[in-house]
């Protein structure tokens, strides 16, 4: 198919102009090459096989300092509850996880709840389970233990 561009005075007839003609559409300045498919932002993540992560377990909840106060009991004994246990950070190997790219650099578990009066103990926090790929090597580099 050969397209020839004709002068505007010859082409224009009865409200039709060559700007809408086939010649203008086929001779545009854009190339007719196939467009490259763009990836989504989530697909363009690179493979991560080494990551330094800081894990912090949750603190236990504080106990309640409380004394029993009843009718005609002037010196009631202690009745405060203990605080709940803090959560652990557990690393679990999983086949569906392929790399460490979605792992946060600081992982913090939740704290236990406070104790309450009338011997009510605080609720323990749920453990935080972090899924890692199979074959992940975990090394303990630095510990901040109070002596």
TrEMBL record:
SUPFAM superfamilies: Obg GTP-binding protein N-terminal domain. Keywords: GTP-binding, Nucleotide-binding. Gene3D superfamilies: GTP1/OBG domain. Belongs to the TRAFAC class OBG-HflX-like GTPase superfamily. OBG GTPase family. GO terms for molecular function: GTP binding; GTPase activity. Residues 45-147 form the Obg domain. GO terms for biological process: ribosome biogenesis. InterPro entries: GTP1_OBG_dom (IPR006169), GTP1_OBG_dom_sf (IPR036726), OBG_GTPase (IPR045086). This is Obg domain-containing protein. GO terms for cellular component: mitochondrion. The keyword Nucleotide-binding applies.
């Amino acid at each position: 198919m050969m397209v020839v561009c004709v002068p505007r005075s010859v082409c224009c007839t009865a409200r039709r102009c060559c700007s809408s003609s086939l010649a203008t559409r086929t001779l545009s300045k854009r190339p007719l090459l196939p467009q490259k498919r763009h990836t989504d932002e989530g697909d363009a993540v690179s493979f991560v096989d080494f990551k330094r992560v800081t894990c912090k377990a949750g603190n236990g909840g504080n106990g309640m300092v409380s004394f029993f106060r009843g009718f005609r009991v002037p010196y009631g004994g202690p009745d405060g509850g203990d605080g709940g246990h803090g959560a652990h950070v557990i690393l679990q190997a999983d086949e569906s996880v392929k790399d460490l790219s979605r792992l946060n650099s600081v992982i913090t578990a939740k704290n236990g709840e406070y104790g309450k009066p009338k011997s009510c103990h605080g609720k323990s926090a749920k453990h935080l389970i972090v899924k890692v790929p199979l074959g992940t090597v975990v090394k303990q580099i630095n510990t901040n233990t109070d002596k």
